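[SOLVED] Need 3D model of a two-part complex

Original post:
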Amino acid sequence: MMLELSLDPAAAVPLYQQIYQQIRGRILQGELPPGSRLPASRTLARQYGLGRITVTTAYDQLLAEGYVASQTGAGTFVRDDLPLPVNAAAPPFVPILSTYAQQITHPTPTTPSENEMRVAIDFGFGRAFPHLFPYDTWRRLLNRYLSTDDSILSRYGSPAGFAPLRQAIASYLARQRGVRCTADQIIIVNGGQQALDIITRLCLNPGEELLVETPGYPDAWEVFRMNGAKLHPLPVDEHGFPAQQIPRNCPARLAFVTPTNQFPQGGAMPLERRLALLQWAQHNQAFIIEDDYDGELRYHGHPLAALQGLDLTGQVIYLGTFSKVLFPALRLAYVVLPSTLSVPFLQMKAVVDRGAPTLTQAAVADFITEGHFERHLHHLRQAYSRRRAVLLQALADHIPLPLRYVQEAAGLHVMVYLPPGIDEQKLVQAAAAHGVGIYPGSTYHLLQPSPPSILLGFSGLDEAEINEGIRRLALAFTNL
Amino acid sequence: MMLELSLDPAAAVPLYQQIYQQIRGRILQGELPPGSRLPASRTLARQYGLGRITVTTAYDQLLAEGYVASQTGAGTFVRDDLPLPVNAAAPPFVPILSTYAQQITHPTPTTPSENEMRVAIDFGFGRAFPHLFPYDTWRRLLNRYLSTDDSILSRYGSPAGFAPLRQAIASYLARQRGVRCTADQIIIVNGGQQALDIITRLCLNPGEELLVETPGYPDAWEVFRMNGAKLHPLPVDEHGFPAQQIPRNCPARLAFVTPTNQFPQGGAMPLERRLALLQWAQHNQAFIIEDDYDGELRYHGHPLAALQGLDLTGQVIYLGTFSKVLFPALRLAYVVLPSTLSVPFLQMKAVVDRGAPTLTQAAVADFITEGHFERHLHHLRQAYSRRRAVLLQALADHIPLPLRYVQEAAGLHVMVYLPPGIDEQKLVQAAAAHGVGIYPGSTYHLLQPSPPSILLGFSGLDEAEINEGIRRLALAFTNL
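Solution:
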């Protein structure tokens, strides 16, 4: 028999494999029926001007994988004892997903770069300014562990995290954030989202209530919703989460708050609200998740101590991250757990993910213990404080409208409330037309309609870009 | 009033913070009652021989955080409008965990190093031999991206993974594993466990059945169980998963198999079983998870093509990992999804974890596209093939008992079945007493009692260690 093949000597896939794949395809689809004889390797080689070894290699692979059998002297035959042909005409399988999967309301994520390409000056949130990070130091720390002599990389690490890093974080948190914990209570996670996912799965049954702030953090809401939580939003004011207003009969057993710097509006929870929240948790047998995503980034006075330090009964779960203060692509965060929760958390963490990459953890541990981290934080505070001041000055200079925002100097962005009547979506579009990326505040509100507002991140831009961006934003206002 | 403090000038925590913390603690616990007056800063400074600025810094922090109020001329007072004292006598909170959490049966993980310290020669599974990995090349690739000019690290990456890495994997898989996919179908995950967790959550409702191999992979079982799956085990033989024996009425809609090299027993699924499995999936509207955890590591002939390449209807989910072929601490794996599943998978991945670290992904992408990966695989095959041969020869030389194992030369370990009547746990203990780490086979069996067996990983040991380890193991046999 003749065999028509379509071979491309220039392709990345070697010729023997092209032959193997095409013959295999025909056998599977029934075009080479069971029992049919393949051309002699010599014949096929001559037909396509190939070396015979190319053809025999392909035949050997077909033989090894059980598509053909060879009979000495008689040649190579398609096996006749296979359950063939595969039903090639079968329609593509359309799966029925789990009830769980149907709870994901998150839109398909786009890569951040797709957004960035659209605009010249992007007030996107959560970016680190590339030139601030001490890459030389970082490279030196990484290289320390990248030697053949070191066996640190050739084993699975502990799912709880690299022990020296946990120790370094515990002592940093005690020193800088007023967190009271031992290294045992700290577990390293691949970003804060993972910690929220594990906590929700551990602490909440589907259908149960969870207290959240609004405006708040939509990525956290997604994790909670996906795990079946019913979100109970309380509107924040300039002092953050109004713990004293939690309804008496609220059955929530989990609350998610940002006490140090309310996300995204800004503002710190005063002591009386913190105490009221802890008392609520005691009364309701609830856990509080304290997301201290940028607690280090306050630009006046000492950073406020964490809520966790006030907790005497083990009801506060503290979340910290290196995304904001080192760089986002690092994907390293940590959670400080009450001792009653650390074992179940670690068990689940070990099941879903065997732990964070050791190399990065080792380098971060050295970065902290050798003082680079606190030095870097000092630089960040100076740089971001200036950028924030420049942004606010530019808003005052260029935009002659009454804009409202929380005054506390902290964080990487400012949430600006616009005068009533301004359409924030139209403003976002008009700004984009001027090459400026700003972000609609409605995304961050659980209660709709929300007052018109925009988010302006300043951490990825230099001072000239901030000024120019706001100048263009002013033009966008006039185009509404 | 006098205030008794316990201050330690040598502590890591600065003195002002010690003062702040101790006063704060007493206010919270009611020992400094509402309205009480703090000593004048001058007095306290004199009492403890401190600079006055140390005390005023502490007082300022207490003031900023709302513990005290100051009345000009009258001094500093504990606020009397706080909901205090916190109930310091309240017992530690004992949480009631979710039903979900109660499904975790995984024991608290111990760090691998704890095991390793016990034994001199450890036949542990899944280790990479440190000296085989080209650290110099790896360091060079990483450093390429560790420059201040590169903004790759200062943004969040795509949750699906770094695009050039997905492309590199797609073309590698086509070339080497017979996987048919585009880069769009590939999503980078933080280890295979994460992929299993997401797949189970997407595809299975609690209480539904899932087909697994026994002996098999306990870490996968844990993920499945935690997500409420009912495991339906089928015993494998030397040809892997007996797809033709799946009961007609089995309602499973998910199967987890290791067709290339059955874990942990060894053996490859022949074509007829692969076709039978695909036909079962079509008939039952099921997904098959193909765990190709070490498909590259076959030591005779070409690696067998993946099951995924036979799938015409989009029912095979392919899992690959870099843990075995680069190094475990890398924590990087990938999943090739049927197109019907790639969007929901990506949505969930984006919610639970914003993606893998960009730096590592960029370096692995270059490692593949520049040919280092396939060169490294070639070295690994040579090295591991030799170690496997040394192990089997040592077993034959030193242990005069009928031992059974699957002959196919592949993988990083050998599962050795012992003669009936030998107590594997006692053997493990006796081996440990001789400084040798071997691992009980019963861990890997879902159906108990299981035939006595042990797992011997050879990838972390050199040839002399393997010989010496088996010599000592022979002594352990005589001590039973």
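Edit: Chain B touches chain A through 136 residues (CB under 8 Å).
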